[in-house]
Design goal:
Elements (H helix, E strand, L loop, with lengths): L2 H31 L12
């Protein structure tokens, strides 16, 4: 492989990793935002 191809391959791999990481972080934040409120349970009388 030529040095240009090696640089392009590294750039591609880093871009895929960055996009995956950003999607993962966005999914975590979205999941926290849409999580139901914790409810306190009352004991049965």
């Amino acid at each position: 492989m030529t040095p240009t191809q090696i640089c392009a391959l590294i750039f591609l791999i880093l871009n895929v990793a960055l996009l995956y990481w950003l999607g993962y972080r966005n999914g975590l934040a979205d999941g926290r935002k849409h999580q139901p409120e914790p409810r306190t349970r009352r004991k049965a009388a």
